[in-house]
Amino acid sequence: MSAKAHSLRLFLSEIARAPRRMGTVWPSSPALAEAMARWLPTSATAPVVELGPGTGIVTEKLLEAGWPEERLIAVEKSERMAGYLQHRFPRARIHQGDALQLARLLGDQKVAGVFSSLPLKVFTPQEAEQLTRQIESVLLPGHNWIQYSYQIVNGHAPSSSFHAVDSEIVWQNLPPAKVSVYRRGNQQSQGS
């Protein structure tokens, strides 16, 4: 079985197990992953973290865009997908766990970017606020939280701690998705 077929099979089996947690009916497209990867920091030495990487399409595009694998941290709730990711990206730091516990998972580690594929539309307001606090606690000031969602209109910053920087609708995704970019703190440059 090819890697692509294995990846799709794993994705579909996880949807069957936990459709609410997956929050989608089909894997993210390469076009969506590339739209997210365009927001990699250009001169940061700190790692970036990916939340909800699934089978790794965004992970793959982050690495193809030049991000060093050893400076990538991924947090995946599904044990099966976390194992698959560790096999696929052996130099990345893969944490099997809940992004709502991000600060505990990362310890003292601060990050220069957060790339999230988490299905925020299925989060309760309390969970969304908890996630925002977790991201705020690990994200270096002036750096970005890149989040995609299927809500392509009327998006807003996740909290007053972040402000919207940019957004892009990716029509080549099933269903179409919106990549939103939020910045924590002041408006300084992305390098650190």
Descriptive overview:
The protein is α/β, with parallel strands linked by helices. It has one domain: 3-Layer(aba) Sandwich (Rossmann fold). Helices cover 33% and strands 24% of the residues. Strands 3-2-1-4-5-7-6 form a seven-stranded mixed sheet. The radius of gyration is 15 Å and the shape is globular. The model is unreliable at 187-192 (pLDDT under 50).
Descriptors:
33% helix; disordered C terminus; 24% strand; 192 residues; globular; Rossmann fold; alpha/beta
Describe how the helices and strands are arranged:
Layout: H1 3-17, H2 19-22, H3 30-37, E1 48-51, H4 57-64, E2 72-76, H5 79-88, E3 93-96, H6 102-106, E4 111-116, H7 125-138, E5 139-149, E6 162-170, E7 177-184
Briefly characterize the structure:
This protein is of the alpha/beta class.
* Mean pLDDT across all amino acids: 86
Overall CATH class: Alpha Beta
Strand fraction: 15-25%
Rg from alpha-carbon coordinates: 15 Å
Q: Please name the CATH topology.
A: Rossmann fold
Task: Give the proportion of residues in helices.
Answer: 25-40%
Count the E strands: 7
Q: What's the N-to-C terminus distance?
A: 42 Å
Count the domains.
Answer: 1
Q: Which ranges are low-confidence, i.e. pLDDT below 50, for 5 or more consecutive residues?
A: 187-192
Structural class: alpha/beta
**Biggest beta sheet summary:** 7 strands, mixed
SSE string, helices as H and strands as E = HHHEHEHEHEHEEE
User: In what order do the strands lie side by side in the largest sheet?
Assistant: 3-2-1-4-5-7-6
